């Protein structure tokens, strides 16, 4: 994450305690951004698994309906 030159100059002229607090906040933001990325990947994986489950349930339902139709000839 790059900062504009004016902001860098303001940060270097800032009170050391305030600068430290700002650096800690920036690190916290970066850590949270990484956490969000990891959680998004997990959500994507879970959505994929739900899709696979839906496909499997649909296939099994069609098979069950087919077996039911074979077991009861002449009945819908």
Structure description:
This protein has helices at 5-12, 16-71. It has two helices and no strands. It is mostly helical and 76 residues long. The chain has one domain. The mean pLDDT is 89.
Main features:
single chain, 76 residues, mainly alpha, 0% strand
What summary fits the major beta sheet?
A: none
Over the alpha carbons, how many angstroms does the gyration radius reach?
29 Å
The portion of residues assigned to helices is over 70%
The arrangement of helices and strands along the chain is HH
Report the total helices. Answer: 2
Termini separation (Å)? Answer: 64 Å
Proportion of beta-strand residues:
under 5%
**Assembly state (oligomeric):** single chain
What number of structural domains do the residues give? 1
Number of strands: 0
Mean pLDDT: 89
The SS-based structural class is mainly alpha
Flag low-confidence runs. Answer: none
Concise overview:
The chain is an all-alpha fold. The chain has helices at 5-12, 16-71.
Topology:
Layout: H1 5-12, H2 16-71
